[in-house]
């Protein structure tokens, strides 16, 4: 119950008056402190002035003990002198009205100051001690303020009574100590205002009940109903006080106790009530003992009630944390599945509309965190959660399933188009961007949806899996933001699973092969490099295009094994080619995926492959994409630096279609820039494409990079690229991807396309093109140009 020192709090709120800060209290004039403390002690002391012997008169000074303790706890120690001056007011009045002799009053004054001073000093010293529960704090308060302090004050004050009035020392000390103890308890509400404890919820009816208990209890202290009634009334008061403590806490019961105690003492001093001498009470000590028992019992009841309430609150918080996301406050995956199971069970109980699930994946949040930091990323996630919650229908539930993925449970769906409309509304709600910490950020989302009616015996996990399959389809479909799970998508999913299973055994069965597509110098027409492309001819499915099996390999982690195998095969082949004297400067390029680039062990594997194949590092080019770099920007930057330190060349593939092209170009340790085929296709025909290609060529060469145009298919494209100063070309104009034997024929012939021939080709003479057609006769175009 002991409050902490006022320095621990910014504001001390008394029962009456405005809030007092420690600074304001310390700056208050001393005379104000003396008057406030003094008038409080006088009002309390005179309210219980009994007519009787000296011991009862001495006991009548007990209320100042509580007020004095409050004053000393609130004030800094250097200002205690002003408080002591106020504590002496009752003694001064006693002398002024000749209520007692000067010598005893002097001892009483010292006792009234000493008891609160000892208690306040010890409470201040112990205020920083950590206690395990409110009950321990309550015991400390009683031990110091209610027992030790009154014992010291009673010992000193009793001296004056014993000397001046020849009273029994033990009787006077007992009455004085009990009076001071009760004085501390009934003024305890002032002390408790220094504590920052959570108040219990109170309704209007409960407040009215508390006021009624206080009024009835106070009224009973004035009731003269005979000796038998006098034995019953105190217990009624005790029951009311305990109820108030258990329901409203220590503050309320202390305030109630103060009111009841004050009323009881006034009534007793006037000869009314069950505690007065007229009702058969032997002395004023009776009321002191009873009220002490009532207050102690009530305060312990209040402390136990508060502790039970705290435990209940902790249990509630733990339960909430187990079922909700700590960052956004939304239900978590466990709670979402429980709600989904309940919804599915409800649909099966009767002919209702369908239940649907949406999985919303926020794009580029990892990149967002890398760029702006995780605190901003967390704020963005909370903003997304708020936007999704505000754009749902009544009754729908949104949950955070993990990371940057949210789930939405939709009930009462008339048809599949309904959930598409809900998904469209959610994605559009994120289109304007999010305002996070005063800055606006653009985030987009893709959605996977699945719907089931009451007749489908499906579990929550199965329905979530369907929505996740639809989400995966959305992520792999450029330009698509919403996908609904259907039979076709289910067949596609089965196909992916089967391909994943076959991929595991493809290398052991020798089903994988490497083809090579040449890269030609536009200036000299000389073959300079081959790009290694992987192809798969499966015994079950036949030829499988890289656009189908590469994404599956990336998802299941097989891409790392496959990538290392392609690099090893390409390096072995290059070493074989370079053993002859023909074109010893020939190089080979190998594509790497985002997963390889985000693996810090990848540079070590490249070093091991170069050592195993005896391939010069300068003869190997690793092709990356901006998308792969942005997959994990922090790690990929380190990996690229390590690869560059090996002496391996780096090429940026599909330039112009990824993220932040200018920024990545400036920071990345590149050697080659490859213009995406989507721009090259329009060169010479579409002014914008021609302008873009020209800009990329100028940009790359200004950085000292070699520029390669991908997807060259016509002489017209080649002519325009030559005029724009592009260094190299690659595409079907020269050759499709060919096997190693055919690539070796190309290398030995080492055919050229002189610049004059390009000019002749624009006039309809295409001799060099014919030569290349002969050289690559029998090579059929591949079904896909997706690289690996």
Task: Describe the protein.
- The structure is a single chain.
- The chain has 788 residues and is α/β, with parallel strands linked by helices.
- Helices cover 58% and strands 12% of the residues.
- The chain is built from 32 helices and 16 strands.
- The strands form three sheets. The protein has an eight-stranded mixed beta barrel, surrounded by four helices. Strands 2-3-1-6-7 form a five-stranded mixed sheet, sandwiched between helices. Strands 4-5 form a two-stranded antiparallel sheet.
List the strand order in the largest sheet: 8-9-11-12-13-14-15-16
Number of helices: 32
Roughly what fraction of the amino acids lie in strands? 5-15%
Poorly predicted tracts of residues: 1-20, 47-61, 193-200, 278-282, 753-757, 759-787
Name the average pLDDT.
Answer: 75
Largest sheet: 8 strands, mixed, barrel
Q: What value does the Rg take, in angstroms?
A: 45 Å
Give the CA-CA distance, first to last residue: 72 Å
Give the class from helix and strand content and strand pairing: alpha/beta
Q: How many strand units?
A: 16
Tell the overall outline.
Answer: elongated
Percent range for helical residues? 55-70%
């Amino acid at each position: 119950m002991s409050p902490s020192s006022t320095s621990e709090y910014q504001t001390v709120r008394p029962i009456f008056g405005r809030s007092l800060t420690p600074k304001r209290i310390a700056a208050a004039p001393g005379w104000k402190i003396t008057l406030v403390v003094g008038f409080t002690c006088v009002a309390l002391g005179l309210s219980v002035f009994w007519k009787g012997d000296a011991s009862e008169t001495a006991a009548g000074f007990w209320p100042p003990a509580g007020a004095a303790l409050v004053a000393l706890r609130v004030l800094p120690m250097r200002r205690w002198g002003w408080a002591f001056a106020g504590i002496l007011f009752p003694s001064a009045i006693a002398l002024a009205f000749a209520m007692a002799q000067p010598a005893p009053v002097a001892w009483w004054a010292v006792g009234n100051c000493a008891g609160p001073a000892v208690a306040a000093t010890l409470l201040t010293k112990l205020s920083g001690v950590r206690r395990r529960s409110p009950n321990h704090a309550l015991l400390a308060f009683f031990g110091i303020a209610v027992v030790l302090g009154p014992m010291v004050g009673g010992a000193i004050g009793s001296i004056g009574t014993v000397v001046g009035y020849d009273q029994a020392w033990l009787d006077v000390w007992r009455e004085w100590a009990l009076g001071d103890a009760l004085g501390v308890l009934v003024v305890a509400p002032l002390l408790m205002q220094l504590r920052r404890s959570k108040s219990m919820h109170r309704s209007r009816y409960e407040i009215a009940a508390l006021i009624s208990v206080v009024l009835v209890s106070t009224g009973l202290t004035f009731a003269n109903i005979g000796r038998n009634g006098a034995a019953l009334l105190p217990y009624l008061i005790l029951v009311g006080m305990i109820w108030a403590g258990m329901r409203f806490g220590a503050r309320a019961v202390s305030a109630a106790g103060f009111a009841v105690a004050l009323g009881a003492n006034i009534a007793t001093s006037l000869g009314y009530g069950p505690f007065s001498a007229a009702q058969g009470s032997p002395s004023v000590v009776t009321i002191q003992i009873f009220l002490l028992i009532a207050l102690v019992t009530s305060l312990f009841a209040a402390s136990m009630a508060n502790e039970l309430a705290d435990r209940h609150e902790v249990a509630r918080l733990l339960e909430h944390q187990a079922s909700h996301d700590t960052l956004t406050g939304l239900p978590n995956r466990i709670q979402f599945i429980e709600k989904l199971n309940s919804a599915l069970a409800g649909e099966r109980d009767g002919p209702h509309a369908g239940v649907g699930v949406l999985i919303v994946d926020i794009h580029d949040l990892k990149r967002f965190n890398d760029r702006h930091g995780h605190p901003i990323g967390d704020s963005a996630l909370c903003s997304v959660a708020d936007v999704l919650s505000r754009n749902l229908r009544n009754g729908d539930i949104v949950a955070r399933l993990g990371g940057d993925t949210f789930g939405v449970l939709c009930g009462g769906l008339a048809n599949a188009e309904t959930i598409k409309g809900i998904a469209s509304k959610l994605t559009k709600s994120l289109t304007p961007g999010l305002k996070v910490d005063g800055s606006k950020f653009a985030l987009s989302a893709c959605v996977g949806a699945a719907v089931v009616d009451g007749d489908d015996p499906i579990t929550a996990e199965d329905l979530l899996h369907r929505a996740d399959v639809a989400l995966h389809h959305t992520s792999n479909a450029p330009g698509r933001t919403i996908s609904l799970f259907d039979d076709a998508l289910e067949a596609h999913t089965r196909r992916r699973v089967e391909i994943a299973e076959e991929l595991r055994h493809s290398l052991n069965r020798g089903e994988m092969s490497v083809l090579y597509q040449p890269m030609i110098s536009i200036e000299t027409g000389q073959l300079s490099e081959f790009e290694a492309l992987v192809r798969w001819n499966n015994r079950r499915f036949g030829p499988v295009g890289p656009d189908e099996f590469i994404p599956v390999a990336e998802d299941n982690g097989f891409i790392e094994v496959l990538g290392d195998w392609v690099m090893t095969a390409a390096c072995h082949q290059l070493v074989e080619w370079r053993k002859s004297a023909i074109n010893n400067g020939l190089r080979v390029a190998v594509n790497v995926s985002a997963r390889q680039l985000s693996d810090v062990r990848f540079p070590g594997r490249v070093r091991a492959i170069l050592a195993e194949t005896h391939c010069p590092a300068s003869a190997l080019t690793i092709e990356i994409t901006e998308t792969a770099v942005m997959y994990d920007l922090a790690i990929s930057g380190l990996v690229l630096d390590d690869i560059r330190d090996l002496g391996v060349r780096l090429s940026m593939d599909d330039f112009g279609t990824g993220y932040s092209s200018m920024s990545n170009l400036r920071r990345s340790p590149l050697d080659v820039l490859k213009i995406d085929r989507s721009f090259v296709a329009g060169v010479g025909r579409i002014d914008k494409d021609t302008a873009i290609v020209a800009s990329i060529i100028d940009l790359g060469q200004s950085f000292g990079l070699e520029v390669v145009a991908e997807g060259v298919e016509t002489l017209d494209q080649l002519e325009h690229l030559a005029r724009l100063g592009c260094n190299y070309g690659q595409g079907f104009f020269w050759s499709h991807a060919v096997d190693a034997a055919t690539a070796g024929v190309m290398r030995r012939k080492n055919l050229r396309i002189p610049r004059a021939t390009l000019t002749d080709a624009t006039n309809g003479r295409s001799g060099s093109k014919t030569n290349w057609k002969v050289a690559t006769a029998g090579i059929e175009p591949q079904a896909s140009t997706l690289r690996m």
